[in-house]
What we know:
Blueprint: H1 2-10, E1 20-29, E2 37-46, H2 51-54, E3 60-69, H3 75-91, E4 94-97, E5 103-106, E6 108-115, H4 117-123, E7 143-144, E8 155-156
Parallel strand pairs: 1-6
Antiparallel strand pairs: 1-2, 2-3, 4-5, 7-8
Amino acid sequence: DGLAYKSMVEKRLFESPYDVAIGLGIDGFLPFKRGRLTCTIVNMTIYNIHPDQRYQKHNLAQIMVIPGKGKPKDLESFLAPVYEELDHLSRVGIKVVTPDHGTILAKVHLMTFIGDIPAVADLIKHTGHMSYFGCRLCVVKGVRGLINDPLSGGMYFVGK
């Protein structure tokens, strides 16, 4: 992530030294050992901060915690306001008043959205490894069951 940011700065994709590069991370967890309550958390990382400092607690922000019984049914409905705000911040930016009462314009650019395999599958609306298009990276259509016994179960992705 740091090298990608540095490359984009060198290519002048950031118009101002005040522009901010961020990444979002998503993960689900069980807050209690017993019970069915789950939480999905969305964290924000500021890539402008040096990697030695970037992941320290005081430099991270939890922008959303979604509680519920099981993972969110419609993750997009929770993320839509975040996407809208980030779109506005990347196009229009935000005016910040400095200590000497001047103003600067800063834009915020979403660089990455990361998570573990189940979280990323939810983000991209992937139906899972047992569906006909079970690979989230390729478009090979699966075959249910064994070739000579279609009732045997399982999903198989046969190469060409």
